[in-house]
From TrEMBL, chains A, B, C:
Pfam families: Gly_transporter. The chain crosses the membrane at residues 6-23, 30-51, 57-78, 90-110, 116-137, 149-167, 173-195. The lineage of its organism: Bacteria, Pseudomonadati, Pseudomonadota, Alphaproteobacteria, Rhodobacterales. This is Putative membrane protein YeiH. Keywords: Cell membrane, Membrane, Transmembrane, Transmembrane helix. Residues 6-80, 91-165 form the Glycine transporter domain. It comes from the Bacteria. Belongs to the UPF0126 family. It is a multi-pass membrane protein. Its main location: membrane. GO terms for cellular component: plasma membrane. Signal peptide: none annotated. InterPro entries: Gly_transporter. It is found in: Cell membrane. It comes from Sagittula marina.
């Protein structure tokens, strides 16, 4: 459980940074920074815990998590102007947080003895739901929908790695999952890796 | 329970098709298709199960549901270009899925012995929440808010049918509910049926 | 519990009014009014109850709450044209509902014996989540994100008041919380009170 808890902490910290960076783009006040940081940081894990009926949910069991997220928000509030380009900082931090969160979410489902499809779903939900909530609340185009970029797809392959490696141990599975997710996402951002997208012919119009 | 389960399967399949069609409009890759299909297909039912504290929620109890939704996504990924007009296909499929989902949701509440208002709410939530999540995530104007078209209203009358007919048997109530919902929605789309909408005079401006 | 229940009723009524006013801006039909009123009225409390694992959630335990919200929707459907300026009516009602809902949410967490951070979060969630859902569904810029206005911040300070005063009694804490929240929000709207917002220098562009 300790390794899984550490993963949860790490993803909370990094997602909180991305939430606070979105708050800096929207020029909110410091409480707004904390709100966006906490929403992004615990949104995916909260949904996971509600769906798996884990009780109490992770940040009620351990409110330190909220302190970590709030600390990240304060850090960004006072230092975001030091970043040359906030948007690319958001993207790379988000990739790291995605990798860690997918590993944490799918690992928890494995620890519960869930079957492979549920492990996959929990990896994707824990990885993608917090950032999705951040983007929906901030009225930005959700990253998960950015056309022609791998995002949900990375989480999906990360979850698949957890499923395949989980027989060899939880730590190995977590490492494999985080590595696959991050490499896929980084490859997509740096080298333009992508899956073929749907290219519909424009619908024929009736004459 | 079997009839209710079948209804859940059918609504999952059809909602998944509409989610995948929205993914085709956004030109996502195949994992994006699966994501949107699953979100739309199980979103409403997941919310219903969380609120009614049904445990485990339906697609964790039966992961086949996720396979059905993913299959629908793959089908659309390879065949959506065959549809002449994807948007009208979305609308009509959505009407069918709405009818089935309202019947499933309100039927489950009746089976739990909930009072009439909760039956109504669960019908509306199961019917409307998945499509609402689909539209919010895809950044489209939610169908439930399309001005002057019946949508939530159809779900509401469907739920009312369940309440009125449920004394005669679950199958009868499900049939009545689905029929009322679909006829109301189809009438709204084909013949322009609607309830009077709010027509406020423009607010007077202070001189 | 009675005082807390009364607070829940009051916030349901007022939030329902704001939801119905948003429905009037979107010119929905009467069922759309009821939908938006109920979503706004019970959204925050539903999320709170799911996260605190209170079972059944408050409006399933007491469906009268749905009747109150629906009644508010009908009232607005027939009388909204009497309001000179609907938007400012939404803002002021929302401030009152926020104050009451933060008091209700943080009070329930205190009654459960939760630690201070969870009390704070439950105050903010109960106060802000319903209005946030209303704005996201209606495709309006979320009030919680309005740049340079106190909103989440007011809920936060209200929750803080609950934490500080809760040793003196639940009623005193509720009153203090509602007063702090409302005064902060009213001061923000009427006198422009605000916290310093993040003012980043525009990111330097590479030469």
């Amino acid at each position: 459980m300790t390794a899984l808890n550490l993963l949860d902490y790490a993803s909370v910290l990094i997602f909180a940074l991305t939430g606070a960076l979105v708050a800096s783009r929207a020029q909110l006040d410091v409480v707004g920074f904390v709100f966006m940081a906490c929403l992004t940081a615990v949104g995916g894990g909260t949904l996971r815990d509600l769906m798996l009926d884990r009780n109490p949910i992770f940040w009620i069991a351990d409110p330190t998590i909220l302190a970590v997220a709030s600390g990240a928000a304060l850090l960004v509030f006072f230092t975001a102007h030091l970043l040359e380009s906030r948007y690319s900082a958001i993207l790379w931090l988000d990739a790291a947080a995605l990798a860690v969160a997918v590993a944490a979410g799918s690992g928890i489902a494995v620890a519960q003895g869930q079957p492979a499809p549920i492990v996959l779903v929990m990896g994707v939900v824990t990885g993608c739901a917090g950032g999705l909530m951040r983007d929906v609340v901030a009225n930005e185009l959700p990253l998960v929908l950015k056309q022609g970029e791998l995002y949900v797809t990375c989480a999906f392959f990360g979850g698949l790695a957890t499923v395949l490696v989980s027989d060899y141990g939880a730590a190995e599975a977590g490492l494999a999952c985080a590595a696959v997710t991050f490499v896929a996402r980084a490859g997509s951002m740096a080298f333009g890796w992508r899956l073929p997208v749907y290219k519909g012919r424009p619908p024929r119009t009736k004459p």
